[in-house]
From TrEMBL:
UniProt protein name: Polysaccharide deacetylase family protein
Gene3D superfamilies (UniProt xref): Glycoside hydrolase/deacetylase
Domain of life: Bacteria
UniProt keyword terms in alphabetical order: Carbohydrate metabolism, Hydrolase, Magnesium, Metal-binding
Organism expressing this protein natively: Galbibacter pacificus
Length: 290
């Protein structure tokens, strides 16, 4: 880890941070907010959900704004009550990944129970290939609901897809532990991981508020690599419809994310705590070398 820090021009005591926006492409409210967070805020990384209806619109933005860090948010689940989507491949080519309606399963446990790793690989490759066909130049791969960490076999598929396209993948022992996946044992010493991960929690949202959580996160960043995962969107009729009966990471939650990471106060905290912002683009030139 220290060697990687040195290659990037940092010291072991530096606090490095990626502020990453998940779920671009989910819907228009998500896209509008992600663009604002990149252009007017301090968000410096985002990733696109290729199977979603608004993914192409966000891909157009990515092509026109190559300076912004852009990854592919590999998607194998769809957690929303009425807003549904499925694989980019025909459902009959990846039947283990879909329900009777051809939609992704809403929960990680259902996906884990049913998914065939070979079909996972076919679908993930198809998602990357579609993104590339749209002109996206991905800086990294990450995973919606971190489903690529569900089993030893799926983690290996994730590695293989990253290696195939020579794109770094986001892995985290902390997230595997937080989601109680019991798969940390399958990470390798050669895997690059970011184990200081901060993402909003329900107890904060209904308690002191997400702004208080993010204040705490910035104050408590550790030396080395850190990442804050957010989900910016506008709390409008569209996002409220997507997130109906889903307050956790719902419309109001996502508006809080947008507001916090576009505020001047937050920019000042980054300076106050001597936090150095980095991106996956910084890492890509070093990681995943054959």
């Amino acid at each position: 880890m220290h060697n990687l820090l040195e290659k990037l021009g940092y010291t072991p005591t530096d606090k490095l941070l990626i502020i990453h926006a998940d779920d671009a492409g989910l819907c228009y409210a998500e896209n509008r907010a992600t663009k604002k967070a990149l252009k007017e805020g301090i968000v410096n990384s985002y990733s696109i959900m290729v199977p979603c209806p608004w993914a192409y619109e966000m891909a157009t933005f990515a092509k026109e704004n190559p300076a912004f860090d852009c990854g592919i948010h590999l998607t194998l689940t769809c957690e929303w009550k009425h807003y549904k989507f499925g694989p980019v491949l025909p459902a009959n080519e990846v039947p283990s990944l879909v329900d009777g309606n051809g939609h992704f399963y809403p929960k990680r446990a259902m996906m884990k129970e049913n998914a065939n790793p070979e079909e996972v690989k076919k679908e993930l490759i198809a998602q990357v290939e579609r993104a590339l066909s749209w002109g996206i130049q991905p800086t990294h791969l990450d995973s919606h609901m971190f489903t690529t960490g569900l089993t030893k076999g799926i983690i290996q598929v994730y590695r293989e897809v990253g290696k195939l396209f020579k794109i770094p993948i986001f892995l985290s022992r902390q997230l595997l532990n937080d989601f109680k996946m019991d798969t940390e044992q399958y990470l390798r010493e050669t895997d690059f991981t970011i184990d200081n991960v901060f993402t909003g929690e329900w107890k904060w949202f209904e308690g002191e508020g997400l702004a208080a959580y993010y204040d705490w996160s910035l104050k408590n960043l550790k030396e080395g690599f850190n990442i804050i995962l957010i989900h910016p969107a506008y709390d409008d009729a569209e996002m409220q419809g997507v997130a109906i009966d889903h307050p956790n990471f719902g419309a109001a939650w996502r508006q809080c994310d947008l507001d916090y990471f576009t505020s001047n106060r937050t920019k000042n905290l980054i300076e106050k705590y001597n936090i150095k912002l980095i991106t996956w683009s910084n890492l890509k030139a070093i990681l995943h070398k054959d």
